[in-house]
Design brief:
Elements (H helix, E strand, L loop, with lengths): L8 H10 L3 E4 L2 E4 L2 E4 L39 H5 L5 E5 L7 E5 L6 E9 L5 E9 L5 E4 L10 E3 L4 E8 L5 E12 L6 E11 L2 H5 L17 E6 L25 H9 L7 H11 L7 H19 L5 E9 L2 E5 L15 E6 L8 E12 L2 E5 L2 H6 L5 E6 L4 H15 L3 H4 L27 H12 L7 E4 L6 H15 L5 E5 L2 H11 L8 E3 L20 E2 L4 E2 L4 H4 L4 E5 L3 H7 L8 E4 L7 H6 L18 E6 L11 H5 L6 H8 L15 E3 L6
Parallel strand pairs: 5-12, 13-17, 20-27, 20-28, 21-25, 21-26, 22-25, 26-27
Antiparallel strand pairs: 1-2, 3-13, 4-6, 6-10, 7-9, 7-11, 8-10, 11-12, 14-15, 14-19, 15-18, 16-17, 16-19, 17-18, 23-24
Length: 685
């Protein structure tokens, strides 16, 4: 301001806001800063100066499966195809990079013409042309026998035609590299080459053909981009959330130095950081390095997830504006390729500005997902700029929430000293059940199955405590049935028992709920579902006992006191993090059951334990809680992306680690110790 009046803070804030330099949310003012975007791929190092190879059919259709010319010509190819001394090789079917391609129909011969043209001012002699690496379906002919070595003169402005014929009864690509050899006095001999290919493809190949030119996604990852982000409009948070958040959830960002270490690689001059990382990764997992090692593994996984999500980047796509939202078509979203949920966000920028620096990108929040369409909330700035058929480049992201709750779980596990659960060494041999256990079985089939009866008995009596009790076996042997029976027996035998039942996926968690409410009144069971889940996917029979509210048409999250009315709470492992945030009193949950534990990474299982279960201690907590894990370590484990994380144990579940490395769970000459572990043998499928 140049006049005498000094602007107030609110005036300055208003100006910054209206010029889109800050975003104001409540008491928080967020400045829009430039940041550089770079990702680090742990699988391969990009080849320097590598150019994407693009193959195109005669119709202009991209052919990702087209074989390239023999690799022996790779570095020499630009020089081989260059016109020299005014001589050019041309065809109506020319493509980029010295390629000549034409399509053929099965059983019908097709002939095209390749012209040798002398565009110079002096006579040139064509000594011969020679096809190499020639498919038998291709044949080359000419009038004066140049193919057989008969030389001929090309006068200035003259042309010489060569016929290329293809006849095939099979679909495929039929090719040859053709060398045209010339002399011109008094210069040295010279040659010009072309890659000629005939393409026969059926309708299926055309239907499955790519919709855009292929470009290795790695090629775009190494370009440093400075971006300015325009904040979008998140979906309405109309859900009723009374569940306390007494324990904060940190961001747990990975250190920038770790990404630099991966980018530089093991052979860099400053490889001490790589050596330190490898030293921690290769060290055996133990209580002393538990937090540091798993944090490093999760950081490595996140860094690779940043790379892999870029596979789904879209270029030159259009959106439709409907009632203040933008509708984007995302092929594959229904199959979770990529996984997009309500509340997630993605970034879009104008295709015409992709090479700008700084790049202005718009953050769009997902309001809903409908088959292959995603409805997005972008800033008013983009809404004002939008016109129909405006083209965008779209970059997807992933939710960091699962990573954050896993990091916090590791910290809480160390803070609460859960080593007797994570690295058990013995049992206290104290039963929770007075006298002999003589149950009334809910599932009468268990009466005939000794292994299942024995597992339920040991779980109810709690004789393994503080060590977890493990149930494993091949598919179809009744692991979930055994766990459900054990939950019902604990619920029946201990009127003060508080049970948390979890599984990695919604489907597995729904199954637990469905089996439990067959014998336990729904008023005693509460299925807590994450807000990102589409309510239409929730099975109808568990709707009465879940947190979907029909009147509000949204999920609700009752307060801690309200949840205490239910003796059994069922959630996925990640959603159990909400219960951790609510800070239930120590020892509130007497039993925690994790089904399909083999499908979860260990930190994910710890989410449902750390901060929720107080392990048994003979002196300080003699009635401590019981942890039960069920699964099959031989089935597919968790889905991971980082090769370093996979190699160094993140793919090993808590169930599998205990079975592999803990003496309590190892098989001896007399079999497994039933006090700690049961292998189910009878197959019911």
């Amino acid at each position: 301001r140049t006049d005498a009046r000094t602007p107030s803070f609110s005036c300055m804030l208003y100006s910054l806001k209206t010029t889109y330099q800050v975003q104001v949310r409540g008491d928080v003012v967020k400045f829009k800063v430039k940041r550089r975007v770079v990702v680090a791929d742990q699988y391969r190092r990009p080849t320097r100066n590598a150019q994407p190879s693009v193959s195109t059919s005669a119709s202009g259709q991209q052919l990702s499966s087209t074989p390239q010319m023999p690799q022996i010509y790779g570095k020499q190819w630009p020089e081989l195809i260059r016109g020299k001394h005014g001589v050019e090789i041309v065809s109506d079917h020319d493509q980029d990079n010295g390629h000549i391609r034409f399509s053929v129909v099965l059983g019908e011969p097709r002939t095209i013409t390749v012209l040798v043209k002398n565009c110079g001012t002096q006579v040139v002699t064509l000594q011969r042309f020679q096809p190499r690496h020639q498919s038998q379906e291709l044949s080359f002919t000419d009038e004066q026998g140049a193919a057989q070595g008969q030389s001929l003169l090309l006068h200035p402005g003259g042309t010489y035609p060569i016929q290329v014929r293809c006849l095939t009864t099979c679909n495929g690509h039929f090719s040859a590299v053709v060398f045209f050899e010339f002399t011109k006095e008094p210069d040295e001999p010279f040659s010009i080459s072309r890659y000629v290919a005939a393409i026969a493809e059926g309708q299926l190949a055309k239907d499955l053909g790519p919709s855009a030119p292929f470009q290795p996604y790695e090629a775009s990852l190494q370009r440093l981009v400075t971006v300015i982000t325009e904040e979008g409009i998140p979906p309405d948070s109309s859900q009723k959330n009374e569940l306390e958040r007494e324990i904060p959830l940190g961001t747990y960002q990975y250190p920038k130095s770790l990404k630099d270490t991966i980018l530089l690689g093991p052979n860099a001059s400053a490889s001490s950081s790589w050596a330190a990382m490898r030293s921690l990764l290769e060290a055996p997992l133990q209580a002393e390095n538990y937090l540091q090692k798993f944090q490093l593994l999760l950081h490595l996984e996140e860094i690779q997830m940043e790379v892999d999500i870029r596979r789904y980047d879209m270029q030159d796509v259009t959106m439709v504006q409907e009632r203040g939202l933008f509708v984007l078509k995302v092929p594959g979203v229904a199959e979770k390729r990529p996984s997009v949920l309500r509340g997630d966000h993605l970034f879009a920028h104008l295709s015409s500005e992709r090479d700008h620096s700084p790049l202005i990108q718009y953050k769009g929040y997902v309001h809903s997902v409908e088959l292959e369409k995603v409805r997005l909330g972008f800033s008013s700035k983009l809404q004002k700029k939008f016109v129909n058929n405006l083209k965008f480049d779209v970059t997807f992201t992933f939710s960091r929430l699962p990573l954050q709750v896993q990091h916090r779980a590791l910290v809480l596990a160390m803070r609460h000293g859960l080593f007797s659960l994570l690295f058990p060494s013995a049992s206290c041999h104290k039963s929770l059940f007075p006298g002999p256990f003589q149950p009334r079985w809910f599932n009468r089939k268990l009466e005939a199955n000794e292994e299942q009866r024995r597992a339920v008995t040991h779980i109810v009596t709690g004789m393994s405590r503080p060590a977890p009790y493990l149930i494993f076996g091949p598919p179809g042997t009744g692991k979930t049935v055994t766990m459900v029976e054990a939950i019902k027996q604990v619920w029946t035998c201990f009127k003060d028992a508080r049970i948390l039942a979890c599984a990695p996926s919604n489907s597995a968690t729904d199954l637990l709920c469905q089996r439990l409410i067959n014998d336990i009144a729904p008023r005693n069971v509460y299925r807590l579902i994450a807000s990102s889940r589409d309510y239409r996917e929730v099975p109808a029979d568990i709707m009465p006992c879940c947190n979907w509210d029909d009147e509000q048409s949204s999920y609700v999250y009752p307060s801690k006191e309200s949840l205490k009315r239910y003796r059994i709470i069922i959630t996925t492992l990640v959603t159990a993090g909400r219960l951790v945030s609510a800070n239930f009193p120590p020892g509130y949950f007497s039993h925690i059951f994790i089904d399909e534990c083999g499908h979860a990474v260990e930190p994910e299982s710890v989410v449902a334990i750390a901060g929720l279960l107080a392990p048994m201690d003979q002196e300080t907590n003699p009635n401590g809680g019981q942890l039960v894990l069920a699964g099959d370590p031989k089935q597919l484990g968790p889905v991971l992306t980082s090769p370093l994380a996979i190699q160094h144990g993140l793919g090993t579940s808590l169930l599998e680690r205990l079975m592999l490395h803990n003496p309590l769970y190892k098989k001896s000459s007399g079999g497994f110790d039933p006090q700690f572990i049961t292998k189910l043998l009878w197959n019911y499928r």
